[in-house]
Amino acid sequence: MSKPSFRESILDAGLKVMLKTGYEGASVRDICAAAGAPHGSFTNHFRSKEAFAEEVLSRYFGHTKELVKQALCDRSLTPRQRLQRYLDIISAVLADDKWNRGCLIGDFSLETVSQSELLRERLEAIFQEWRGPFASCIAEAQGAGEIDSAFDSVDLAEFLLASWEGAILRMKVERGPAALDRFKHIVFQTIFKEQK
């Protein structure tokens, strides 16, 4: 009889541990303990902690893309409302965690890019893919005259995601929603102000 594979449970546990403690704070021992897996199982499935972290990051981004789709593909809302909806969905997720965790993409961007070219390249690819649906939604809003067309939609998508990540970092420091609420209020009264 073959031994059970712990690969999926290690990845699931790794995501939870890394969200809580970051890349550096998450030891292989802690990840295996959280997965209920023998320590040797990690090296059976992953060639390094760095390669493991890349898979965890991809898993996290897959979930994020589902949230993007949920918000930005909702045709019952205007494009501007869809942008707001995404920020509200993420705010609710962060509220459920009592403002104790942020975004793994932002956390890894701060923590790993100077140490790992593999993770830096994966993060760069994630940001490029992530901005796509936002740029399309913003372009749609601009085409409908809903928001100003003074700036390129890709640049606005980059601005939105980078600024939102900054607000999430402040939220983690403050352990409350003020930075998120402030960002949403200001961005929708300025950059994404509804055109009359």
From TrEMBL:
Residues 27-46 bind DNA. InterPro entries: Homeodomain-like_sf, HTH_TetR, Tet_transcr_reg_TetR-rel_C_sf, TetR_C. The keyword Transcription applies. Keywords: DNA-binding, Transcription, Transcription regulation. SUPFAM superfamilies: Homeodomain-like, Tetracyclin repressor-like, C-terminal domain. Gene3D superfamilies: Tetracycline Repressor, domain 2. Residues 4-64 form the HTH tetR-type domain. This is TetR family transcriptional regulator. It comes from Paraburkholderia youngii.
